[in-house]
Amino acid sequence: MKLRIAVLQMSSRLNQFRSNVAKAHDLVSQIPPNPLGTPQLIVFSELALTIYNFHSRSSLLPYCEIVGKGENFRMAQQLSIKNKSFTLLGYPEITEDSKIYNSAMLVSPLGKLVYNYRKTHLYESDENFGCSESEVGFQSFPIDFQDSAHKSAKEIIKCSIGICMDLNPYKFEAPFEKFEFATHCKENDVSLVLCPMAWLHSESPSITKQPGDWDIEMQEVPQVVDTNGDIRGGSESSRSSIEYWWLRLSPLLALKDKLITIVICNRSGLEDDVLYCGTSCILQLDTSKRKIHLLGSLGWKDEGLLFREVDTMLEL
Questions:
Q1: Given the DSSP bridges, would you call strands 270-271 and 259-265 parallel, antiparallel or unpaired?
Q2: Which CATH number is 241's domain given?
Q3: Does residue 316 lie in a domain region?
Q4: Residues whose CB falls within 8 Å of the CB of residue 76, separated by 6 or more in sequence, listed in order
Q5: Residue 314: phi, psi to the nearest 5?
Q6: Which of 39, 44, 138, 144 is 20 to 30 Å from the Cα of 30, by its Cα?
């Protein structure tokens, strides 16, 4: 089975929701004509259509939505129906009892909400604006890409969503080698890993803790092989970000004879003293050969779209 994936990397602006939505539609419209059709999956970043760096609950509240309602949902719905695709969009969720979650909605090609994931590992910014942790933790679920109305899609793919800090140790306090999110994906035999991000650049003035602060052993982890030329942007920061994300997902190597697609959609740009590292990318892990391939990436400064058609099953 082939799967066409579009990843949108944006630097959304506060109080410019309609402009941010227009930018998203414009980026999708720039996908080159494909004889097989439009994307089957469109992936956005964490809190994609607002800023991420809110400083308080009161500053975030005006942008929060009840799941399946509101401007974020309508935008994802319109995009899905227009392109006959699934759309994954990070947004700020509020419940009827006023709990706030950092969430990601998956909307079907028919415009229906099919899944809503709530972030499990909170970053300090999430705590600043009063986010609650997911009560159920990491989850996996099937996506039936036949629903995308593309005749080439005939397989159900098992998926997990991890939002940014979910890849890191819980509160930066759990043992580094616990690999909570990756272990969940491994134990549930996941084939598609989707990661909306608001991941910081290593030189962001706001950083107090970063991966380099850990004593990380990478000798047993295969290095990322770039099958599409150099990482776009060519920066050491982009390379180190991709290698760290892969390290945090490397327990997936334990799965046998499997092709696993990893989609990472990050923000770019600057918010106050917070600098994001961009570098949205699509990785593919072939566990039969113990190889991880970079199928494409965006630069750390870019606002743009990454579009790839990927295999989802090994040819045995």
A1: unpaired
A2: 3.60.110.10
A3: no
A4: 87, 89, 105, 107
A5: -70, 145
A6: 144
Closest CA to 64 of 101, 112, 23: 101
> At CA 267, angle to CA 229 and CA 146, rounded to 5?
75
| Lookup: tokens for 88 | 């994954």
| Token code pair at residue 307 | 């579009």
In a domain, 80, yes or no: yes
Distance CA 195, CA 181 (A): 11
pLDDT tens for the chain, residues 1 to 316 = 889 999 999 999 888 999 999 999 999 888 877 766 789 999 999 999 998 989 899 999 999 999 999 999 999 999 999 999 999 999 999 999 999 999 999 999 999 999 999 999 999 999 999 999 999 999 999 999 975 555 554 579 999 999 999 999 999 999 999 999 999 999 999 999 999 999 998 777 666 555 444 444 444 566 566 555 445 545 676 889 999 999 999 999 999 999 999 999 999 998 888 899 999 999 999 999 999 999 999 998 899 999 999 998 876 5
pTM of the model: 0.91
CA–CA gap between residue 187 and residue 176 (Å, rounded)? 18
Output the six-digit token pair for 101: 């979650």
Length of the chain: 316
The count of structural domains within the chain is 1
d(CA 239, CA 254): 24
* Helix (H) or strand (E) segment spanning residue 187: helix 180-187
Among the listed residues 94, 119, 101, 108, the one whose alpha carbon sits nearest the alpha carbon of residue 150: 108
Residues 6+ apart with CB under 8 A from 86: 40, 41, 42, 80, 106, 107, 108, 109, 114, 143, 145, 147, 148
